[in-house]
Amino acid sequence: MPEAPPDPRPPVVTPSRVLAGLCLLAPFVALLWVDSYSRLTPAFIGIPFFYWYQMAWVPVTAALTYAAYVLVRREERARKAGDAK
User: Fold this and answer.
1) pTM for this one?
2) DSSP labels, 63-81
């Protein structure tokens, strides 16, 4: 099976891709650093901090993942439009 020819252009590191990477990295850092939220207080509607902090990150992570997706897609579209000229 013939191999595809290598892409002559090197991968591009742009500010929007770095920002997208930071959007994806933030939830990992926040949730893997357990000492920052391993406590019971302050409680929210009777739920210990340990649990509601983790659950609060669910929609935040979804929003950050969507933001990273939008940033990368916008850059890809701009790059393809620039290549077409």
Assistant:
1) 0.77
2) HHHHHHHHHHHHHHHHHHH
